[in-house]
């Protein structure tokens, strides 16, 4: 059963003009119709290049960003319909781990105070039990208990991220949204943090939405992966299936850019190159949003008709008119350059 159900989620940021009398002249369509399901106790990886809207999806699920349209159901409850005390109680069950552990921790508070704050705010424990809970949280994430009196700047990046994780699990949530949890860390530290997240998931029966651009990290930790491009989901599949048999041209290009440690295999394999820059989310292309950069685009349908996110195999959904033909090698890539603005 799905713990989280997202349907038609849209988050548009208005573009305003005028100094005295501001008026709305357009909108940045950061998220423009996203459907997602996250099963209880599993991890969904949400990947895509910078600016595709994946972090906005995570923030909208927690109502840190107001949604323009759509719905989010958490354990059967309508998140967008909650207000006041109902929303406060629901938020105890949904927490977030932020990308930059230094900027997400108050530099004026000690680690003990940072971890105690959510427990006090939600009246979970008090007095000696509060101190004991803070020390327990530090022990769970692998930090010494004497860290309670120290401040964020006294820790390394990996240790600060452990503090962020400890704060996220303090209220015993069901869902944790991890927004680029290891991108600001050294490679050796990334593995430690990813392993910690996996251990906590098994120990506390957590459900994760992991937002990242590092496909190797996402594959290691996720059962299912959703690929996002310019505000929409273009492919959803089980982790191994997506890596072994990607069907969307964008996913194929992302995976072909991952270096392989075997030099002989690296030299022999074919790469799918993308031409051109990511279009502006304030003025996305008509038809298929990827057609301005797609090496498999066809002259009419791709430009004019919006594809549907359709299921081609059990659990494998693709947002492409020609996914079957691309997978079968019936359409060959062309690298003639970007589509002119008039055609887009």
List keywords for this structure.
344 residues; alpha/beta; 8-stranded mixed sheet; 4-stranded antiparallel sheet; globular; disordered C terminus
Note the topology.
Blueprint: E1 2-17, E2 23-39, E3 43-47, H1 54-61, E4 69-74, E5 77-78, H2 84-91, E6 94-97, H3 111-121, H4 128-140, H5 157-169, E7 175-179, H6 187-204, E8 207-212, H7 215-221, E9 224-229, E10 232-238, H8 239-244, H9 249-256, H10 263-268, H11 301-304, E11 309-313, E12 316-319, H12 323-327
Parallel strand pairs: 3-8, 3-9, 6-7, 7-8
Antiparallel strand pairs: 1-2, 1-4, 4-5, 9-10, 10-12, 11-12
Helix pairs in contact: 3-4, 5-6
Walkthrough of the structure:
α3 (111-121) packs across α4 (128-140). With 344 residues, the chain is of the alpha/beta class. It has helices at residues 54-61, 84-91, 111-121, 128-140, 157-169, 187-204, 215-221, 239-244, 249-256, 263-268, 301-304, 323-327, and strands at 2-17, 23-39, 43-47, 69-74, 77-78, 94-97, 175-179, 207-212, 224-229, 232-238, 309-313, 316-319. It folds into 2 domains: 2-222, 3-Layer(aba) Sandwich (Rossmann fold), CATH 3.40.50.300; 234-327, no CATH class. The model is unreliable at 336-344 (pLDDT under 50). It is globular and about 70 Å long.
Give the CATH topology of the largest domain.
Rossmann fold
Total individual domains: 2
Order of helices and strands: EEEHEEHEHHHEHEHEEHHHHEEH
- What percentage of residues falls in helices of 4 or more residues? 25-40%
The share of residues in extended strands comes to: 15-25%
| Biggest sheet overview | 8 strands, mixed
CATH architecture descriptor text of the largest domain: 3-Layer(aba) Sandwich
Strand order, sheet with most strands: 6-7-8-3-9-10-12-11
Distance between the termini: 41 Å
- Strands, total number: 12
Let me know the CATH homologous superfamily of the largest domain. Answer: P-loop containing nucleotide triphosphate hydrolases
Rg, alpha carbons? 22 Å
Class by SSE composition: alpha/beta
Top CATH class of the largest domain: Alpha Beta
Mean pLDDT figure: 89
What global shape is seen?
A: globular
| Helical run tally | 12
Residue runs with pLDDT of under 50 for 5 or more positions: 336-344
């Amino acid at each position: 059963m799905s713990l989280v159900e997202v349907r038609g989620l849209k988050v548009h940021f208005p573009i305003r003009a005028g100094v005295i009398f501001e008026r709305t002249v357009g909108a940045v369509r950061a998220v423009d119709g996203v459907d997602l399901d996250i099963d209880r106790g599993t991890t969904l990886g949400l990947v895509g290049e910078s600016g595709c809207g994946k972090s906005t999806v995570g923030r909208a699920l927690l109502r840190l960003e107001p949604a323009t349209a759509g719905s989010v159901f958490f354990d059967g409850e309508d998140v967008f319909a909650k207000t006041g005390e109902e929303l406060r109680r629901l938020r105890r069950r949904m927490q977030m781990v932020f990308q930059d552990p230094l900027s997400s921790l108050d530099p004026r508070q000690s680690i003990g105070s940072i971890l105690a704050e959510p427990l006090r705010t939600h009246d979970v424990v008090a007095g000696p039990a509060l101190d004991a809970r803070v020390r327990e949280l530090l022990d769970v994430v692998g930090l010494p208990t004497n860290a309670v009196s120290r401040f964020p700047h006294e820790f390394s990046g990996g240790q600060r991220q452990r503090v962020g994780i400890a704060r996220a699990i303090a209220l015993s949530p069901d869902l944790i949204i991890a927004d680029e949890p290891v991108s600001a860390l050294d490679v050796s530290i990334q593995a430690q943090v990813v392993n910690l997240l996996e251990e906590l998931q098994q120990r506390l029966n957590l459900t994760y939405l992991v937002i990242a651009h590092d496909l190797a990290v996402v594959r290691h930790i996720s059962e299912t992966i959703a690929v996002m491009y310019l505000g929409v989901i273009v492919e959803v599949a089980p982790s191994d299936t997506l890596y072994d048999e990607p069907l969307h041209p964008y996913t194929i290009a992302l995976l072909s850019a991952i270096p392989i440690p075997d030099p002989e295999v690296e030299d022999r394999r074919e790469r799918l190159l993308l031409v051109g820059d990511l279009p502006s989310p304030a003025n996305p292309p008509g038809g298929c949003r990827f057609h301005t950069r797609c090496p498999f685009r066809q002259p009419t349908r791709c430009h004019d008709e919006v594809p549907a996110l359709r299921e081609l195999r059990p659990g494998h959904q693709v947002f492409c008119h020609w996914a079957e033909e691309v997978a079968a090698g019936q359409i060959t890539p062309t690298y003639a350059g970007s589509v002119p603005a008039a055609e887009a």
